[in-house]
Amino acid sequence: MLCYQCEQTKAGTGCTEIGVCGKTPETAGLQDLLVYSVKGLGSLAHHARNVGGIEDQEINTFVNSAIFSTLTNVNFSDERMVEFINESRRLHAKLAAQMAAKGVKAPASASVAQPWHGSMPHPLEWNSQAVALGGVGDMIEVSAQTGIAERQRVLGETLAGLQELLVYGLKGLCAYAHHAEALGRTDPQVYADIQESLYFLGTPDAADVGKVLAQCFKAGATNFKVMEMLSTAHSDTFGHPVPTSVSLNPVPGKAILVTGHDMHDLHMLLEQTAGMGINIYTHGEMLPAFGYPGLKKYPHLAGHFGGAWYRQKIDFAKFPGSIVVTTNCVVDPLESYRDNIYTINETGVNGVRHIKADSKGHKDFSAIIKRAQELPGFTEEDIAKMPKKKDVTVGFGHNAILNVAPQVIDAIKTGKLEHIFLVGGCDGSEPQRKYYSKLYQYMPTNTMVLTLGCGKFRIFDQDFGILPGTSLPRLLDMGQCNDAYSALVVATELAKVFKTDVNSLPLSLDLSWFEQKAVVILLTLLNLGVRNIRLGPRLPAFLTPEAVGVLVDKFNLIPANVADPGADMKMMMKCK
Ligand code: FS2
Ligand code: SF4
Q1: Least buried of 6, 169, 318, 331, by fewest C-beta within 10 Å?
Q2: Is the ipTM of this complex over 0.90?
């Protein structure tokens, strides 16, 4: 096993025996094989579209869903991975039959295996080969040949790592596109772009550093479109987020906790539990739900419970109700609450109950509701023993911030606001992440901070007060990592007012990355020409010093100075 796709990878180099996330070598192998198979399916779909004008929505949806399932902390279930691989091969055969019926020839030259495919046939060929794949054991055996090691041996670590940069960017992109699709938003060009990249990875061009980098930025450009689509999907469905106070104190009664990112699922659950006397709580990245008028209107959306994803074992063990995991991040549960937790969508954990949607996308949450009714819920006595917490405020999406833009602009012009920080991204358990907690202590009072993603949990409950001389709060939470589009809109609009570009604003971006959604957001920012981005707490293991050197030269990408957040703050105040 070698997996180095996320920031917490072992020793900053790669997980080899078991994942720091708990991923076993077997699951890692099955995920590699699934990606291999989907490279083949995506390549065939690309060819069928371009040569035969064939568009198959079942395949488009599947490709995004399957790739999303291999993102960090999404799916640890071997059984589910095997289902995905079998489905990929079934869809490949289905598409090949459609092509044959239309007289569209197979992409002969593209299906020649590249040296980095090692002893495996080209993904296009492997999918249609009549290999006997009886079950998990057979698949794990095949998967041993599809890992990163062969690519590293043939291409060298820099180029193999850049190919992985594209694969990880695609994982984030597929995840976001799939979130948008859950809200009914799709764009044929997005599917085409994703599948073109999957095709690209099996061509000789993928051995050219310049071409791989260009393809990475192309994925970043597609992601910008997807982030916009996702943002509009949310605001059209639930209204634009508005500043809203959220209680961190539970109330007496039966309870269900919702974690992940999927607002559509939360809405479905709120509908199915309306009037039942069960309170719904958000966890982790679901906190921004409270900003949406279409969600906060439900009186039984009672409050937020717990912190960022990596605290699940602490938070979930204390939660006296049932728990739903809608998307990343999921952590292998403790036995104490294993019977209370359910996965849906792409998420999965061995031995945890999974609820599937019907053919129309509807999910029946009755098992989760029944479990919540069996469990004690919060009692008056329990609550009396809990420390009382202050409310927090969420809901500063781009619409809410642009509503106060004249005040922000005036504050900048009159010197009341010297600098804005965007501290976006993920949280995690490593000690280096204390950098983000400490950074805020060095922020001068005449500055504002915009947060998005689960990195907000470093400070979300602290009182930053009001920007002196104004009525503007100093801490504005823009939402989930899924809402990164909001930050781009705000930065672009400010740049327009000051007749400059985003790089010349008194604005610093300090990104805390963890998984592959953050990878594609970084590609989007770089593709937009945003410079001087700080990235931490560690640089990606899949980028060699040579590859990092290219990004530093071209974009002045800056590694976060985790040992000295005060020094980083001084530099950022000088716009460096
Ligand atoms: Fe946080 Fe985890 Fe949002 Fe990332 S809940 S680190 O995958 O997607 O941010
Ligand atoms: Fe390691 Fe991250 Fe891969 Fe898990 S996803 S095996 S923690 S690199």
Answers
A1: 318
A2: yes
